[in-house]
């Protein structure tokens, strides 16, 4: 799968706005995905990080150090 088709596949599913996301939250999550997709080429891992990003950023959830390191790597403003 080429880089472009992989990205298109990821954004066709993970890039959709969830009903509970405001437009601003969705846009920030998309920026997070755009940063993460440059390094992570596994759709399942991107899905987990995308959901985790939302939980950390907007629900004040905390996760183990490894996951928090990944979240901060792709969004330095996160906890």
Automatic annotation (TrEMBL):
Domain XRN2-binding (XTBD): 13-79
Protein name: XRN2-binding (XTBD) domain-containing protein
InterPro entries in the cross-refs: XTBD (IPR021859)
A Pfam family assignment: XTBD
PROSITE patterns associated with the record: XTBD
């Amino acid at each position: 799968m080429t880089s472009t088709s992989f990205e298109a596949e990821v954004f066709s599913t993970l890039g959709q706005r969830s009903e509970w996301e405001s437009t601003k939250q969705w846009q920030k999550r998309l920026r997070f995905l755009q940063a993460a997709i440059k390094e992570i080429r596994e759709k399942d891992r991107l899905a987990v990080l995308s959901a985790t990003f939302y939980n950390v950023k907007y629900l004040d959830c905390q996760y183990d150090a490894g996951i928090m390191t990944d979240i901060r790597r792709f969004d330095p403003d996160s906890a």
